[in-house]
Design a protein that fits this description.
heterodimer; A: 193 residues; mainly alpha; 8 helices; 72% helix; elongated; disordered N terminus; B: 179 residues; alpha+beta; Nuclear Transport Factor 2, Chain: A; Archaeosine Trna-guanine Transglycosylase, Chain: A, domain 4; 2 domains; 6 helices; 23% helix
Chain lengths: 193, 179
């Protein structure tokens, strides 16, 4: 505090007739702290009034955008924008129209979901049905093949039996026992032939 | 006690729409000719604590004279909001929802007891189904005399259920507050 006071006085002293005032002040002050004061006082007072300092204050006029401050360093977090002039807190829905619109929206959404579910189920069912039909067809084919094979074998056997019977009829000597000879039919025929 | 906010209304209706069809509109705006057509006495939803009640506006207005701490319940409790903001339907809502049910399942009398004691509904106990019910959709379970018993979720679609054996589960019990 003391140095500023002194400086002001110093200035005033300069502007007016210098000698008597300075002398009086000097005489008053000099009693307390005579040696220390004058040099720093003068330097500081000059610095404040100088045009250089004024220029510095002008330099400070940056806007926040110019400074490129990271957004997260703000008091309000980035992305949170408080709408001005809007009601604080909860917004209630109590009128029928508002409720109806919400209900209509929800219903439409729900029906869409159900529809898609049904479509999906139907498609899956179709695929399943097609697969089942294919499997059935394959099964039927297999069965028919088997039947065919069976039939052909039976046919063969019949033919053989017929031919055998013919041969048996040709041979004058009847076989000893037909049932036992069946398995050994070939051998016998070979041996007898 | 207060009105529902927009988000709350949406969650509530979404949950109700799980079990009901379009006729749920009648809950909010009763059709002309019914008793509750008076605009001053229309049915409303109110939240007290975290529970949602369905009641007439006149009763709701009367209830404002009771301090919050002293107000235990009013109207019909539909369900409650969980702390995560979801909605859970209570069995007390059955009377409100049953007349507007989208899908219904009627169970035979021999299946009533297992269902009421917290079991699922097996195919053998099902008496009748609504047509074309998709998989995992909400149904209201009725007994043979058309009394609503509770809620359920279908395990299979109607088409698939026909192929299943009688002991297979047809409907999962959804809200297990029956007994």
């Amino acid at each position: 505090m003391a140095p500023t006071k002194g400086s002001a006085r110093g200035k005033g002293g300069d502007s007016k007739s210098s000698k008597p005032s300075t002398l009086s002040s000097a005489s008053r002050v000099s009693k307390k702290k005579d040696v220390k004061r004058p040099p720093p006082q003068e330097v500081k007072s000059k610095a404040r009034t100088e045009p250089k300092q004024l220029k510095k204050t002008k330099k400070r006029e940056y806007t926040e955008e110019e400074l490129d401050l990271p957004k997260l360093n703000m008091i309000t977090p980035a992305g949170v924008v408080k709408p001005k002039g809007k009601k604080k807190g909860k917004t209630f829905v109590d009128d029928q129209e508002g409720m109806m619109t919400i209900l209509a929206m929800v219903n439409a959404e729900k029906e869409g979901q159900i529809e898609s579910k049904m479509m999906k189920a139907r498609q899956l069912e179709e695929i399943r049905e097609a697969r089942r039909k294919e499997a059935e067809a394959r099964q039927a084919q297999k069965k028919s093949k088997l039947e065919e094979a069976k039939a052909s074998i039976r046919q063969k056997r019949k033919n053989k039996n017929e031919s055998k019977q013919d041969s048996n009829a040709d041979t004058t000597a009847p076989s000893m026992n037909d049932s036992s000879s069946k398995s050994k039919g070939k051998r016998k025929s070979v041996s007898f032939a | 006690m207060r009105q529902l906010t927009e988000d709350e209304t949406k969650t509530l209706f979404a949950k109700l729409a799980h079990y009901t069809g379009r006729s749920i509109n009648n809950l909010i705006a009763p059709p002309a000719g019914s008793e509750e057509t008076d605009a001053k006495d229309r049915p409303v939803f109110r939240v007290s604590g975290n529970r949602v009640y369905y009641l007439r506006l006149s009763i709701a207005n009367l209830a404002t004279s009771i301090p919050r701490a002293n107000l235990l319940s009013l109207g019909t409790c539909v369900g409650k909001f969980t702390k995560t903001g979801k909605f859970r339907i209570h069995i007390t809502a059955l009377d409100i929802i049953a007349p507007h049910a989208r899908y219904k399942v009627w169970i035979k009398s021999n299946g009533e007891a297992p269902y009421m004691y917290g079991g699922n509904v097996v195919k053998a106990h099902v008496g009748r189904w609504s047509e074309d019910i998709p998989e995992h959709s909400g149904v209201v379970v009725f007994n043979t005399s058309d009394t609503p018993l509770g809620f359920g979720v279908t395990a299979r679609s109607t088409a698939e259920i026909r192929k299943l054996d009688p002991t297979a589960i047809a409907v999962f019990r959804a809200i297990s507050e029956n007994i």
